[in-house]
Amino acid sequence: MLRRMTSSKPAAPAEEENVQMKVREKRHFELGNFELKETLGTGTFGRVRLTACNTDQKFYALKMLKKVDILRLKQVDHIKSEVRILSMIEHPFIVNMAGHFQNDAALFMVIEYVQGGELYSHLRREVRFNDEKAKYYAAEIVLAFCYLHGAKIIYRDLKPENLLISQHGHVKVTDFGFAKIVEDRTWTLCGTPE
């Protein structure tokens, strides 16, 4: 898959448009499919829990978003956009979504579980990456962004906390809450102030 993405042969315009507009079908899940385990992280709207899925015996990160908080903070459009974008994309250096569902109280996104933790934690522990490791991570981030930009998606929240490391040492871009499909340009001010 990596070889295809790095090919120097440009995609035909019709192919690019299909990539952008195609929404992949995701698996159907419900809360009863999961055994909830420890909390992996918390945010403004809810939390992410490690889960074991009883239908395929895989581990997933289950992003649970409280509807009342989404409505109170007027984030409905952002959440819909995040689900739409994650439904469109699949890439080895992006945390991929397996599906989504909802109940009366919450929205749920079933996300690939990435075992290695945040790049931020690795950087704090090492203080500084050597040149070889920094180039390696940067190259994978660039490949992920080239893929996103080819689908006219801009990410808009790149920071070490939003980069996870897989068990094999690869970068995985996560948290598409600020991502947006842009045909020309956008004027939105967003991201993380720090």
TrEMBL record:
InterPro entries: Kinase-like_dom_sf, Prot_kinase_dom, Protein_kinase_ATP_BS, Ser/Thr_kinase_AS. It comes from the Eukaryota. The keyword Zinc-finger does not apply. Residues 34-194 form the Protein kinase domain. Pfam families: Pkinase. PANTHER family: CAMP-DEPENDENT PROTEIN KINASE CATALYTIC SUBUNIT PRKX, CYCLIC NUCLEOTIDE-DEPENDENT PROTEIN KINASE. This is Protein kinase domain-containing protein. It comes from Tetraparma gracilis.
